[in-house]
Amino acid sequence: MEPRFQRDYRVARERDGTLVLSYAVGRLGALMGRLLGRRERIAIRPGEGLICAGARLAFGDIEEIGVFTDESSARRASDPTSYVFAHWRGRRVSITRRMPYGRAEAIRREIVACSGHSWR
What we know:
single chain, alpha+beta, 4-stranded antiparallel β-sheet, 3-stranded antiparallel β-sheet, 4 helices, 28% strand
């Protein structure tokens, strides 16, 4: 699991040992709630990050996963401030908070690999 995003979720361990997250909490949780229009509990698969576990449910509606960097940040920093976004129902929705581009791109690749889709 990604400790940096742990605070965005409530995680519980079921009696059978399965980790379950309630994602209608925090920033990433709020995104998943908006994407799906409901509250859910998601079983986290072994070795699956929290972002993948949450994003897995929303793939049917997402048209693109990308990384956005504003031009002013890109001009003045070697690792500019960026965020991962989902292009969903005609609008761009931020999936992560702002972070260095390298980290955002790593998260984007993780989501794409988990989904089986070939978004750029």
